[in-house]
Amino acid sequence: MVDRTIAVSSPQLFSSLSAGREPGQVLDLPLLLDTADGWSWHRWCECAGFAFEPRGGTLVFDTDEAAIDACISGLGVGQANPSFVERELRSGQLLALSPTLAPIVGAYEIAKAQSARLPQGFFEWLSRWDLPTLA
After folding, report:
1. DSSP label of 100
2. What pTM was computed for the model?
3. Is residue 135 scored above 50 in pLDDT?
4. Helix, strand or coil for residue 68?
5. Residue 111 burial class via C-beta count within 10 angstroms: exposed 0-12, middle 13-18, buried 19 and up
6. Residue 24 has what DSSP assignment?
7. Which end of the chain is less enclosed by CB atoms within 10 A, N or C?
8. What are phi and psi of 85, to 5 degrees?
9. What is the pLDDT of residues 43-85, one digit of tens each?
10. Number of CB atoms found within 10 A of residue 88's CB
11. How far is CA 78 from the centre of its chain?
């Protein structure tokens, strides 16, 4: 399964964007990075058609979870796989800024021995992901 990322923010931070809400306006807000080099933000900006040149500053976190917690708290704009923040998006804790802009940033694969039995609940959860498989 491919891993996609979208830009997300708290509703309060989202409301600070001007009426146009163009993808490039994200760079005016603090960006929350889950790696020191911000490689997934580089990829997101590349897919949006502009360079990664943050004007609102950046905050670096050591895990995706820490960055998302900071995002929920309104500290900046984060990135996440929509499946990983599904509950937060549904509850309104997070808003997708440009939901159709979702570049591929990695992939997941299940590898198991032929005789191994994958727990059914876990397999069903994976099957609900709305992600295309790699060919």
Report:
1. T
2. 0.78
3. no
4. helix
5. exposed
6. G
7. C
8. -120, 25
9. 999 999 999 999 999 999 999 899 999 999 999 999 999 989 9
10. 17
11. 6
